Amino acid sequence: MAQIKRELENDTTISRDNVVIQTPSFPNEIIGTDISLSSSQQGEFLEQILDELQSKNDDTVLSAILKLGQIQKSNAEILKELETLADEDENMNIRIEARAILNSLKRNTAAASEMIGTEIKMSEENKKPEEVLIEILAGLRSEKYDDRASAITQLKYLNFSSEAIRRELELLARKDENAEIRASAMAALNLPASRMVQKRINSSKLPPPEAAALR
């Protein structure tokens, strides 16, 4: 053994540059693998991830965080759960990983929102308000999750709306099968344009003097 050591020490062909250090791979490492999901699969997958994030088993929670890193998708409930894990979980690894993926998801959401807003503004510049609202109303009534979600998102960047749009939002907020759509529709009802529509509806139901006071 001593002889082998001496031979290695005296071998001038061996250098640190030729040494490759293998880093261990941890099960909770976030890997940027892209997972393509349809809209219905995405909704189901996010519900499953939320259940796993709420698990009492640390490995299950870390596995759920890993999945979020892979798909880079979330919803309001998942973000809230990640906040709780990052602030309160007893497991330090979970707190660290939850905070890391939470920050990543927030950055991606902010960037996507800014890009969507710019695209919407550019595409709507040459359209009449009536044409824009007709397209959005069709999206809100679509059976596809992506169409409904996109239509609600577009409303955030408009300074006009209609009674038909507001009625459809109220329906989605109460009865849509997807919790994320229900929450988004509820939030859209509080947008300035939507509130103006409601104010106009309320004023139309009042006698003239009282209606004038609301204008």
Features of the shown structure:
disordered C terminus; 2 domains; Leucine-rich Repeat Variant; 11 helices; mainly alpha; 215 residues
Overall description:
With 215 residues, this protein is mostly helical. It folds into two domains: 112 residues, no CATH class; 88 residues, Leucine-rich Repeat Variant. 70% of the residues lie in helices and 0% in strands. The chain is built from eleven helices and no strands. The longest helix is centred in the middle third of the chain and has 33 residues. It is elongated, with a radius of gyration of 26 Å.
- The low-confidence parts are 11-35, 210-215
The tally of helices reads 11
Tell the overall outline: elongated
Q: Distance between termini?
A: 95 Å
Domain count, please report it.
2
Helical proportion, percent range: 55-70%
> Approximately how much beta-strand content do the residues carry?
under 5%
| Class per helix and strand makeup | mainly alpha
In short:
The chain is mostly helical and 215 residues long.
What is the element layout, followed by pairings?
Layout: H1 2-10, H2 39-53, H3 58-71, H4 76-88, H5 92-124, H6 129-140, H7 145-155, H8 163-175, H9 179-188, H10 192-204, H11 208-214
Helix pairs in contact: 2-3, 2-4, 3-5, 4-5, 6-7, 6-8, 7-9, 8-9, 10-11
